[in-house]
Amino acid sequence: MPEPFADLFKESSIFADREVLSPHYVPEHLLFRDRQIGEIERGLTPSLRGERGRNVFIYGKTGTGKTSCIKYVVDKVKTLPVVRAKITYVNCRIYNSRYRVLSKIASDHIPMYAKRGLGIIDIYEKVISWIEEDSKILIVVLDEIDIIKDLDDLVYTLTRANSDIKSGGITIIGVSNKLSFKEDLDPRSLSTLYENELAFPSYNSSELASILKDRATRGFKPNVIDQASLNLAAAIAAKESGDARLALKIITKAGELAETAGSRTVSVKDVSEAARVAEEEIAYEIIGMLPEHQRLIVYAIAIMSLHGGRYRKLNQEDDSFLLSGEIYSRYVSIAQSLHREAKGSRIYRRYIADLEMQGIINAYESGKGMRGHTRLIRLAYQPGKIKEMIERSLSAQEGNGEAKVESTEPNGPGVQ
Fold first, then answer.
1. In this structure, what DSSP letter does residue 20 have?
2. Which one is the CATH code of 34-200: 3.40.50.720, 3.40.50.300, 2.40.10.10, 3.40.30.10?
């Protein structure tokens, strides 16, 4: 009988250092992001000199290197012999409220107050006093800033703090997948932001191939994966969304498949199979974290993708696209069945832009031959699986007494 867990302690025949293949790993040099890193560093220069600088907001699709670049710069700042500039990195998926963000700042810099059960006003006053002690500049990096539940309150608090601070100040670096997140902020908060903006483009196939080769050299054992396999993974990821995270997940999954099969090399076939699995995993991860109404819009798109819309009747050559207006109508119907107030058409259009930026949908302007002007929308993933995943999440809400979707499609039931 084999020893329990014996395989856990066997040396891998495929991987040399799996951590290097992780999307969370920050290499010593980030390929194809020198310009963006330089922009971030220039944006922080006034703060590092002890001056109140402009806030910086960074945008880009998932997997474009935003977080890696920010962490790279944060690590560099922490090594500088600067006394008056202090920095706090906040993962907003964990610290997702104003209170938690302020508590994280206190924990990083004045830990004696961090766990005393202080209220938000007390923590705020402690942070202000700490800044004023020697005219510090506090740099607060808010990664995935749009996740914060009371974002307007947080932005207003941090920006208005500069009016309360007698000497020193606070600089914000916000990182988001969504270009439109600021549109939900109160005009009072927006008026105090005074920010620089920096957009991260998606990687192309050639860039992704170079990134994969750099990681694979250290992540895999010698001669395990060839350039053809890396190029295929890069091409698949570039076609989907230019997402480096997806590309890395593909070659990692391919390595796991090869190892399970007892092979000592990763083949093109392994990459093709791994791509299917990796794309689904990333899609589920992204969609599972969407705000409720964006998830309902994706649900409407998935349902209509399975059963067709008016564009299928208008254009027999390509029946995969849907008209934006009919998606909105279906979304409104679904929201009503959940006893939710549907968002207006202006916010709906913004949500469509956000979903496109995250690579969940593809959207195109209608061309000649169609009456009026509309957008054509297509789901970037298999609609059946996306529909099932969202239905499971909605059913879980129903179990908690939160939600129930009535029948929303003519050819089949919704979540019952």
1. G
2. 3.40.50.300
Helix 98-109 / helix 120-133 crossing angle, nearest 10 deg: 40
Fold for 205-287, please state it.
Helicase, Ruva Protein; domain 3 (1.10.8)
For the stretch 63-87, pLDDT in tens is 999 999 999 999 998 888 876 899 9
No. of helices (H) and no. of strands (E), the chain? 15, 8
DSSP 323: E
Name the residue ranges covered by the structural domains of the chain: 34-200, 205-287, 290-399
DSSP category for residue 322 = E
The architecture that CATH gives domain 290-399 is: Orthogonal Bundle (1.10)
Question: Can you give the length of the chain in residues?
Answer: 416
**In the numeric block, which tokens belong to residue 12?**
């891998």
Rounded to two decimals, what is the model's pTM? 0.80
Query: What is the 8-class DSSP label of residue 234?
Result: H
| Residue 293: partners with Cβ closer than 8 Å, 6 or more residues away | 331, 335, 340, 342, 343, 351
pLDDT at 209 (0 to 100): 98
pLDDT digits (tens, 9 = 90+) for 283-322: 788 888 888 999 999 999 999 999 876 655 455 455 578 9
Compute the distance between CA of residue 262 and CA of residue 256 in angstroms, rounded to an integer.
10
Q: Which amino acid is at 96?
A: N
Averaged pLDDT for residues 153-170: 92
